[in-house]
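Lab notes, practical 5.
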Amino acid sequence: MSTQFILAIDPGETSGLVVVGFDSEWLEGGGSATWEGIGKAVRWRYAVQLGRDPKAFDFDAGKARKVTDQMSDELHLPVTLQPLEEDDDPTFRFYQILDMEGPAGGGDLRMIDHNELRQVRQIAGLLHWHEKAALVIEGFTLRTQTMDPVALSPDRLRFAIEAEEVLHGRGRLPFIQQPSYAMSTATDDRLKRAGLYYPGMPHATDAMRHAVTFARDLRRDPELRLRAFPNVSVFPIEVLA
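Output from the prediction step:
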């Protein structure tokens, strides 16, 4: 029994991230397509929030747990050592930048949002650990004119995540999914039936909506499965030889 992983991100001032491992046979049409069936098809899961309201979901206790330090090992997100400037001690230099005690790329970190920078570095670590997972990111449409820089945080983060993955990661291009589609498909009630609802973590719950909605689409569409998991062969070895 093999498992295929989906990494879904709801980016923003507080970002929700989930990694879900689904039974491959279920993704290929086996088993029940009910919401209870979806829950049974989940082999592994992880849920976290980064940014302004960092939390990790404690599956043993069944509740969200506040993370006091965003860079804490409690998040289990390895930060890749890719210094923003060359230095004798890149790790020390990197934390200086995150603590707003030094310049980033020769400028002042206050010119950019250090919360977003911190998130991108954390997400890069998660992408590194799940290099074969299908990447799904919530789409964003600005529906009003505003000067508030927070309003464009989702788009900035999405572009930064894409650039990080293309330049330093495995080169995956994300599948962009509209929030209205995920909200209407994976409602709160349906997620609860599947056992995939995370009370106290609205952003992680929204990320799970995207993961589950995408999994349902994969189950119905063989071509989408091939694009989502290009390294997984669905043909006999002799055919590929």
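Observations recorded by the TA: The chain is about 40% helix and 20% strand. The mean pLDDT is 81.
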